[in-house]
Specification:
11 strands; three-stranded antiparallel sheet; binds alpha-D-glucopyranose
Length: 420
Amino acid sequence: MKISINKAKKTLLGNRRRGYTLPTNNKLYPAQWNWDSGFIALGYSYFNLNFALKEINTLLDGQWRDGMVPHILFHNTKTNYYPNYTAWNCGNKIHSSGITQPPILATILKEILNKNKINKKQLLNIKKIIKKIKKFHEWFIKFRDPKKTGLVSILHPWESGYDNSPIWDEPMNKVKIEKNIKYKRADNKVVNPEFRPLDIDYDRYVTIKNNLRKLKYNPKKVYKSSFFNVIDVGFNSIFLKANKDLVELLDTFGLNKKKIDNYIRVTEKNFLKLYDKKRKTFFSKDIKNNKKIYIPSITNYFLLFADLNNEKINKRLIQNLKKHNLKEKYFFSSIKSNHKSFEEKRYWRGPIWVNCNWFIYKGLKNKDRLFSDKIKNKTIQMLEKKGFFEYFSCKSGQPMGAKNFSWSAALYLDLKLNKN
Ligand code: GLC
């Protein structure tokens, strides 16, 4: 047991660079990623609060003037990663990508504050952090939900963090690949290509990116003209929960919470419009093509974490969740394993991801303690047996992708050491 806790700490420290931490050290992801850094900060908070705050501060150093926090910061420009900083060609102070990722910082910060003694200097820093996070959330509300529906759009599959999920298959099929598109992937040289997205996926990722770049990442223009515009259940659940956590933080620090508070009310009301009463499931919405998306993705259960405070819905979600991986030894697969889009080993099309289990475990804690403990223990056992890999097969537990994966190690620390 102790060995794994030490190993988790060592994994994080081994991936740490100047003020930020790589998702892994095997050259697959040679930069700072947005939501990875959130999870990583939570991991550090168990043994070095200053590293935790530094991780967040460095990420927020790359915040754009309009409020967006990019999904990648390229602190080191000499890498083989594609798309690299020149392919994006943007950034404020730090070279960055021109899109964002799930906003988990408010949630992470609240978790950190709940269990740590904070000194005066750190408190001052935290207040600054909270103001920046508020600006980030306001950016979402202003530019990703211009009609104020309470639900925000993502404009690139990479913004979701679950890049090649089947949720995006239909909207992606509609994206016409740019003529004579040219680029050089590096990811499938580092990891078995069978575990990675396909070339045709990359053709479309790059096509969408190039269009955003052509629009100079102007937030109003990209909302209207991106080739991809989806309201996703999982993403909006993360945002709703983060808004709730942000309101508490604003309250604690005597900052104005009114705007965010009001937005939460609208979200809670309109989330129900994504519920299909007949099928008894939530659906995502392809705004670009005006289509509903029904994919049994584990990310739909992030709603338990956000919590609509609707007992009937929660009960239904838990019932469905219990059927998600009925026959599998390991859980939760990112996609229900009897669904036609399920692929056991291909990235976000089937494998188990530790952050997904973490969101669901947290969401269930106050609703079904027995089940939530089971999720926690199974996840811990899997990591202790297989190591801190990026993702795992639900059939065999086979570890895949990057090893020494930071968020697997960081969330292991939280699952193992969190006393709340
Ligand atoms: C991949 C994942 C994304 C993650 C990044 C770095 O793009 O899909 O969620 O943030 O790698 O680990």
